[in-house]
Amino acid sequence: MVARKLSPKAYEVLRPRASAGARGLISGAFGIDPDHPDFITLRDEFFANYEKALLVDSVIFDGVDHLLDQLDQAKLPWGIVTNKSERFTNPLTDLMGLRQRAISTVSGDTTPYSKPHPEPILHAARMANIDPSKSVYVGDDIRDIVAGKAAGMQTIAAAYGYCGCDEPPEAWGADYLVRHPLELLEIIFPNRA
Fold this sequence. Notes:
The protein contains 8 helices and 5 strands.
């Protein structure tokens, strides 16, 4: 926006759109949709800038490390499924030490489809040799919940994430809703004291 001599949008305005990726952020910042003639140019500029800043100040949500430690200790496999392109997913998950630990990592361009289509999630389950009906999918966007349900998984809406949807997470139709990553432990390990 600065390069175009426009006033920057407030973080609070754009953060909820992050889950919708470049499309959501460009729409929020410039008020245009993918059909607009300037969209492709803005998207390409966004990707170039995003790539430069990708590993600057990127941190994992508070509590996720402990959650993953608990899953690893219980030998429960977990994976990553994102609509983010592999060129961004791999460096980011490497930086955070996630890709090395995950049993599968599926990016937005790994399969011909992206969420809300269930194929990326089903692909991750096949990679991990896991029955989708015995799995849980956690997501911070309604598309995650739609994809998880279509894949035959139980779903958990992560209200602590970017939550880029016009509807509140309570309205997404998830099986569960959590407001902090550690709340997932109560769902995954219901018999723990």
